Amino acid sequence: MAALACMLPLGSMAQKGSGSFTLTDDRGRVIVIDKAPQRIITLLPSLGEIVCELQACERLVGVDRYSNWPERVQSLPKLGGIDDTQLEALVKLKPDLVLLARSSRVTQRLESMGIQVVALEPQNQADMRRVIQLIAGALHLPQSQERAQALWQNIQQKLDAAALRVPAKAKGMRIYFEAGSGYFAAGEASYIGETLKRLGLVNVVTPSMGAFPQVNPEFVVKANPQIIFMGERTATDLQSRPGWNRIDAIAQQRICSFTPAQSDIIVRSGPRIPDAAELMVACLRRIFPE
């Protein structure tokens, strides 16, 4: 918690006397936003969710194809993904600000057309707090930093409440979280891993392995997790994986499988992290009834 509560580095954002807002985005670019943008496009679901949680959802005019929350964004134009953004359709919407991932392929094209772009891609909770503050400032919201801080505190309070509902028997148990097909795991260094730790679970994928490493299936067998979290689509073949029938989680049927809609919530590094925590806790309470 102490790390999450630290102040932002000097120079990451600043309010100028003229009313403009200056920030440094995740490319290291210094960007000056002179006035409040009114036609915003987001090309990463978590960024759109942050805009809406900051009570500026009405300014969104387009989103990426995966954005589905809150309900208001479902009727907005869908503009593709990171690798296949529909550039012509985007330009026709006449945005005055585009929020996108650092890895987006259209950033330079948009900037060459005079469209203001901010690249933000939160990887952990400290990142998320920073991104919430930067977006609040970029939108020129009234009392922007107070509003950002209130949202962040609300997220933390909800996470604390979820942690209190974890069954005592689950505390300290070893967990493996399979975040994607091909044995991509959510490590302790990821935002998912941070939530698991907050709930009192011990991730078998250590920080040194990275945020979302691709692990060897034999590694999981040797780590012998006592609980497994994964999407329901990949949970059907566990018994057929060589050696996995020896894993405690499978032998004891301590497996939490999440629907696609639930996985949408869990895998996004946005303001719905407390909802993700509640989904995890609900499954733990089914496994360990008290």
Can you give me a brief rundown of this structure?
The protein has 290 residues and is of the alpha/beta class.
Describe, in plain words, how this protein is organized in 3D.
There is one protein chain. The protein starts with 12 loop residues before the first strand and ends with a helix. It has ten helices and twelve strands. Helix 9 (260-266) crosses helix 10. It is elongated, with a radius of gyration of 20 Å. Helix content is 33%, strand content 16%. The protein has 290 residues and is of the alpha/beta class. The chain has helices at 45-53, 87-92, 107-112, 125-138, 144-164, 191-198, 217-223, 248-251, 260-266, 273-287, and strands spanning 13-15, 21-24, 30-33, 40-42, 60-63, 97-100, 117-119, 174-180, 184-185, 202-203, 227-231, 255-258. A hairpin with a 5-residue loop joins strand 2 and strand 3. The protein has two domains: 13-157, Rossmann fold; 166-287, Nitrogenase molybdenum iron protein domain (Rossmann fold, 3-Layer(aba) Sandwich), CATH 3.40.50. The model is unreliable at 1-11 (pLDDT under 50). The strands form three sheets. Strands 8, 9, 10, 11 and 12 form a five-stranded mixed β-sheet that branches. Strands 5-4-6-7 form a four-stranded parallel β-sheet.
